[in-house]
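Researcher: Quick one. two chains, 850 residues in total.
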Amino acid sequence: MNRVILLLSVMCVGVSSQPITENQRLFSIAVGRVQYLHLVAKKLFSDFENSLQLEDQRLLNKIASKEFCHSDNFLSPIDKHETQGSSVQKLLSVSYRLIESWEFFSRFLVASFAVRTQVTSKLSELKMGLLKLIEVRTHRHSLDLTNQNSCLTDHLTLQANQDGAGGFSESSVLQLTPYGNSELFACFKKDMHKVETYLTVAKCRLFPEANCTL
Amino acid sequence: MMKNLSEVVLLLLLLFFSPYAQGTRYSPPEKPALTRCRSPEKETFTCWWEPGSDDGLPTTYALYYRKENSDTVYECPDYHTAGENSCFFNKNDTSIWVNYNITVAATNALGSTFSDPVDIDVVYIVKPNSPEEVVVTVMEDKGWPFLRASWEPPNKADTRSGWITLIYELRIRLDGEDDWEMHLAGQQKMFNIFSLRSGGTYHVQVRCKPDHGFWSEWSSTFNVKVPDYFHRKKSTWILITVFCAFIFLILTWLLHMNSHSLKHCILPPVPGPKIRGFDKQLLKSGKSEEIFSALVVSDFPPITSSNCEDFLVEYLEVYIPEEQELMLEESKDLHDNCLKSEGSTYDNDSGRGSCDSHTLLMDKCRRSKEEGRLTDQEESPIEAQRHQKKWNEGPLAYSHDDIVSPDTSSGRVKTWPSVFSPLPQYSSLNQMSSLEKVKQHCLSDSLFPPSSSSSYLTQPGHDNNKEALGASYWDKQHRSLHPQTQALWQIQAHSEVNISNVGRKQAPVDLQPLALRPTEYVEVQRINEEDMVLLQPVMSDCGAGCPRPRQEDDYSKVQGVNNDNMLLLQREVAGHKAERCPCEDQEMNGAMDSCVLSSIVTQKPTACIDTGTPARDDTALAVSGYVDTATIFTTY
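Model:
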């Protein structure tokens, strides 16, 4: 009897340890992806800024002060305190929503077709990875797999609705279009950095030994 | 009144000058400018501004900011923490990923001036502090030292939670030099430095940067001294290296001096093909067919006049000045024999011989005449002479046009075909008739056209098949052989005479084997005391040029022709050559001045002749004679 319990516990540990390792790997990949996307966003923004003339830049600055991104509607932590106070699950879900939204908006980025398609594909991949991470985390907390999946999507949708219009309302799109280029670039850059920070914090919280405390 | 005037003037003056005294008062302050805003850890940030020129009036500065998407204007919460002309935003007032619109206002009594607004996002103005606790230690790796630098992130940067990700950079400098050596360390907090100079002092500094931000300032310098390591080993190695280099230089010099001999020793020169007249390029081209054809086609053996003279002269030239001169051209046959090639050149002087040769022919004629006289069994020498004359006439009529190389054409055709093989039969016959036949044969074959020869052939009346065959054979030979062979026949005729003479002495049993064979050669064995040329057959299995038995004196070589047109034969006695024995035939002088016979007929009892006339001469008689006329050509 004791031996059976011992065996079962060992198996459970083994089973549970495996997803953790896989989780860590997935996290590392996600962080890497978002870092790359952030760099791309930065480059696009700087290229766009450089292409503008001086007067246009002043105008841009004026506009930028009033800009708002569609992601502003999302309730995302905006400082360290809030970020560190948020759970990993929340961080992951916020990140997922951001990536999902930008997967839609990246098509409007003013860039070459190759860059645009590459950015969109990377965003899609990141979205899938985040979804997987979320699933893993929710699965760990719950035993029912099938329910969890549906629950997860419902939860995400609910959050989106709570944030307000999900950020995909026509008004927001229309508002973006007149200043589509500059605002898009700025917002894209900012949002990518947000996701990068959230994921890094989440990873370091989960796996402190991985480049967080050296 | 005066006092009032002065007071008014003073007032006026004051009024006038008062603005000058307080000029600044009347102008608002100059516009300040925000210089920079920095956040050390992405949690707080500070902004500094530069005040404008101060007119003296007290000016107050105020910073106002506005967050994005909000019109609420806030004032700087803290003016003092960060120092003069600064505004410090603490954690509570700092929002990340939010655009701040900041303005500074300068206010004095006259007014206030606002600076240009600046938009910042805290995320992008992060400039951390320098790394702390930079420690450099000297460590050792298999006897070679290296430096290990370690540091800590700045105090306030929260890298542990992942809020900030820092990358570090290290730089090192040797004491006394000006150039820094940069090393990027990434996110690690430790770095190894190798390739150090022993005994040197190094200065190390570290700085850091967030993934999207500014580089920090360099940390404080850490000085470290590398100990001296193993001078002895180094110096020993240096000595060894220098010594080896020295030896290497000496060896090189020696090699250079003896390069030639070494080259010959190690790489002996490959001898190229040294075939005269052979084109080496053919070998290089590598086409075997061309090479072989070249070997065959080329003029081998090489031809020079001297070589040609060395080669066998097949024919002797018998020159009869009073009679028709035998203008015999040199036979091409000789050259064919000599050269084994087609189309080689030849001079007309050489190659005369055989039946057409003056000298030999006459010699034989003379001898035959003499023999005829001596033996008394032959017809009169006159007849012989007459025949001889006739014979001499023959060559004249001869044309050299249809020169065909004899069947025996080979390198050294020194022997004439024993076309007279049937002749031995005549030995048993009537001598007269035989002689006649011989003469006739000779005449027919050599001197006259085939048509005329037939008449002669019928004369003997000996319907000897062999004879006929022989005659016919001679006929053929006559057509086929060169004129040079005429002399051969003639001489052979002489020899036949001899044979016929001698044949009576003995049974020419041994001559039987000499049946009608197409090419059978005889050679001069020696000259007996009676001035007779003794002939012997050449070895049957031997072709031309077969070495003859040297048991007797060998008179087969003509050494030369002297000025008196005498044929000088060379006697070789059993291995060593005799001296030249110029001899004259005085008897012949009357008839032929230029008829030269040497050593064959001599009346001088010199050593040339005779020594050695063993009884072998009887048995050694050959059917025909052979004289090597090669030496004649040397003198020609």
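Chain B has 17 helices and 20 strands.
Researcher: Thanks, that's what I needed.
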